[in-house]
Each structure stands twice: as structure tokens, then as C-alpha cells.
Amino acid sequence: MASVLEDPILIRPFKGHKAAVTGVDFSPTTTALASSSLDRFLMIWNLRPQSRAFRFVGHVEAVTSVQFSPDGHLMASASQDRTVRLWIPCIHGESSALKAHTAPVRSVNFSYDGQFLVTASNDKSIKVWSVHRQRLLFSLSQHTHWVRCAKFSPDGRLIASCSEDKTVKIWDAANKVCIDSFTDYEGFANYVDFNPSGTCVASAGSNRTVKLWDIRMNKLLQHYRVHRAGVNCVSFHPSGNYLITASTDGTLKIMDLLEGRVIYTLHGHKGPVLSVAFSKGGEKFASGGADAQVLLWKTNFDTFNYKEVLKQHIRRIHTDNPPHLLDIYPRSPHPHDGKPQSIEIDPSFDVTDTQTIDPTVIDISSSVYFSSPSRTTGSSNGVSTVKDDTSSEDLRYCPALFSPTSPRRRLEDEVEPAVCTVDKRIGISPALGNALGHIVEQLDVLTLTISILEQRLTLTEDKLKECLENQHKMLLQARQGE
């Protein structure tokens, strides 16, 4: 029997959220982990032992997605309050709100170079933003129902999106056109993502399926039905050989894509698992669930040769038929049914030391937006308050403030209490500050008005569609009566 250390193991749970965890993402250096939650907060967990956690306060409704920028200098979040927020992950909590969506925003994703941001929303649109200028560039609006997720390809040239209209669409980001569309008549996809090479996309289905689509041949490559409930999220290992899935059935499953089989089933969450993500090097992965926990796991994929892992795995399970030769590049979709021989890992039995003391949580209120060469589309007006006993060790992962001209701030400056008003921080008079505040309030009113009009238009479209369908049914019945 292979050593238990070769299996994925639970390193520790993180407890600090008060509601379901909707998204997780590692910093580029894998020294910190960000999570979003229905409790309206973002949290950054320092992965070093006995370090503090930071809770970012800014959104007024549930936060649905979070991601670090490729250089780690920024963090983006999406929320049901219809905003996208760019954060500087430091204790001052500086952030900028991007407002253009007219319904809850479902997902947020940076391009590979960190220059662009793509978001998906219940307003049926996909929007692409300039990160540097903090403004909307263009919208993609061919979906006919809520858009659940949108992702850039690894090279940034394509965008993949999935919607409750039961389609997965591939977009040319430069020409702003849909170049391909895959339809799933069994159910809609909750999540979509590119593999590391950018040749395939994986979709997580509400109908318990995981599908891999080849965007070069425009066909379904692999089809897995291994969960007992809907699949909420997927994440590719950096090698591209493994895929991890998170499901409402309360489990995570790791799939060997080359062999076309499930090799591990992981238990740990008490209830649905909503999010999962590999670290940039693949040595760790994290999961978030409806139990308000973030679980940090360690993999064996970075230290063991792939063939050796597979060889040890086969020794531990019942003899199985050789894999289908078409599993890697099938001529037609080849479904994979759930197989009982995957290795079950339950940390409550396998891991004894999970009672790690929860980290101290420091609340960070969103403060004035950070500097940008052009006007931002929105900003917060809160005041940041930080406790005096925050140590520089806790801030080691926090990058300098994102500004092309400002020098790097010293960690000693980060530790000082940051209690100051917006007017003092940006050097404007109180009268001008009040005028700007009034303008922002008027813009919020206009945004709300547009949102109401959009909702009414959507209801009218739905009613019209329903009438047309009823009319079509009546015509069919009349013809059959004749």
C-alpha cells in the first residue's frame, strides 16, 4: 500500500466567515488566500502559522467572486450589489467600485497580464474593463439568460462564458464577437474555465455533469457524471492532467483527465461545496463551502511523478478494465459514469490535528479609491481604522500601493493607525468634497433607475416570449384538431 502522504491531505480549516464561502483564490506567491462570502465580506488568510486574517468591508450585499491580479498587487471582487470592486490588499483597505452592471455580478476574472477584467452578471451581459483606467471598455450581450461565469483564456485572446440559457460561448476578445457556442440540453453550466494550454474548456453542470469541450475541433471531448448533485466549480491543475470539482453533494473529486477516471473523492465540508481553486504551482488547493469554512489542502501532484502516482493508485483499488482508447481524444463524446474505486479521503478520520487555533481577524473598512490616470467609475467614502498592534510580519504579503508614480510604502507606515478623512487624504476642500459626494449620489440614483428599467424590460421580454410560446402551442393544437 502506498504511503498516505502521497494522497491529498487537509492542512487546516479557516473559520471567520459568517455565511457560505462563494469564491477562493491564491495569491501568485501562494503566501495568502482570498475568499468571498455571502456575509458581504472578503477575507485574506495569511498561510504562515499563527498569522492574522484580514476582513475587507466594502460591499453592501453578498460577494460572489474574488481573484488576485497576476502580480498580486490588486484584488477584484464581484457582488450582488451590482458592483465590481478593485482592492489594494493592504491594511488601508483602499478600493474602487466599477459600476455598469444593472443586476447582481456573478464572477470576476483578470486577463493573464492583469490589464483587463471580465465580469458576468444577471443582466445577461459580459463586460470587459480596463484595470489601469478603471473604466468599461465594451459589453458582450448574446446570452438570453443570466450569465453565471466568464473567463479569459490563458493568452487573453478568448473569453469563455456560461449562462442559464444552457449555452457555453467562446468569444473573440479583440473583435468582440461570439465565435462558437456549445449547447447543453440537459441543464445549464454553473462555471466554466480554460485548461492551462487554452485548447479546452471545462463546464460544471447544474445537472451533475462535468464536460470538457475542445475549442479547436468544436466538439465535446469528455463527459463525467460522478457527483450526486449539481457541480458548482472546477479548477485545472497547472499541469493540465488533473481537474478538481466542487459539488452540492458535499464532496470534492479529483479527476485524472489522461486516464478518464476519478482518482480521489474528498470529504470535509458539512454541506454543499461552492468553490475550489488550485494554487499557481499546484502544490495546494483550497475549497469553500456553505458551512462558511475555507479548507486548505496539500496535493502530491507537484512532488511525485505522474506515472508513479497512477501506478500506486492502481495498486490500491479493485482491478478495472483498461481505459477507453478514445478517452483522451474521442471521436465522439464518451461518457464516464461514477466508479466506486476512487479513493475516499475524509479528514475527520485521516487527519488528527485539525484543531488549529483560528487566526485573529482584523476588520478593514473600504477607504478612498487609489490613484489612477483617469477618473474612476465609482468610489467608497468610508474611513479605515486599524488596530495599533498589527505587526509587520502579518503584512509581509501585502504589496505596495498600486500607482505608477508613487514610491513603495514602508511597512512601518502600514502599521501606523490610518484614521483620516477622505478630504484630508486627497487634499480637497470640504465644499468641493460635498459637491463631489452629491454628484456621486445622483449617479447612484441614475444607476438605480437604469437597473429598474432593465428589470422591467426583462419582464416584458419574458412575458412576450411566453405569449409567443402559448400562441405557437394554440396553433399546433388547432392544426392537430383539423
Give the SSE layout:
Layout: E1 9-15, E2 21-26, E3 32-37, E4 41-46, E5 53-57, E6 63-68, E7 75-79, E8 83-87, E9 95-99, E10 105-110, E11 116-121, E12 126-130, E13 135-140, E14 147-152, E15 158-163, E16 167-172, E17 177-183, E18 189-194, E19 200-205, E20 210-214, E21 219-225, E22 231-236, E23 242-247, E24 251-256, E25 261-267, E26 273-278, E27 284-289, E28 293-298, H1 306-315, E29 334-337, E30 343-345, H2 347-350, E31 361-365, H3 411-415, H4 422-426, H5 430-481
Parallel strand pairs: 5-31, 21-29, 25-30
Antiparallel strand pairs: 1-28, 2-3, 3-4, 4-5, 6-7, 7-8, 8-9, 10-11, 11-12, 12-13, 14-15, 15-16, 16-17, 18-19, 19-20, 20-21, 22-23, 23-24, 24-25, 26-27, 27-28
Put simply, the count of helices is: 5
Principal-axes geometry comes out as globular
Major sheet: size, sense and barrel closure? 5 strands, mixed
Q: pLDDT below 50 for ≥5 consecutive residues: which ranges?
A: 1-5, 316-332, 350-354, 371-426
**Helix coverage percent:** 10-25%
Q: Gyration radius, to the nearest Å? A: 24 Å
Strand content: 35-45%
CA-CA gap between termini: 72 Å
Average pLDDT confidence is 79
Strand order of the largest sheet: 2-3-4-5-31
Summing up helix and strand content along with how strands pair, one would put the structural category as alpha+beta
Q: What is the count of β-strands?
A: 31
Question: Explain this structure to me?
Answer:
The strands form 7 sheets. The protein has a 5-stranded mixed sheet with strand order 2-3-4-5-31, with no helix packed on it. The protein has a 5-stranded mixed sheet with strand order 18-19-20-21-29, with no helix packed on it. The protein has a 5-stranded mixed sheet with strand order 22-23-24-25-30. The chain has 482 residues and is of the alpha+beta class. The protein is 16% helix and 37% strand. The N terminus is likely disordered. 44% of the residues are buried. The longest helix has 52 residues.
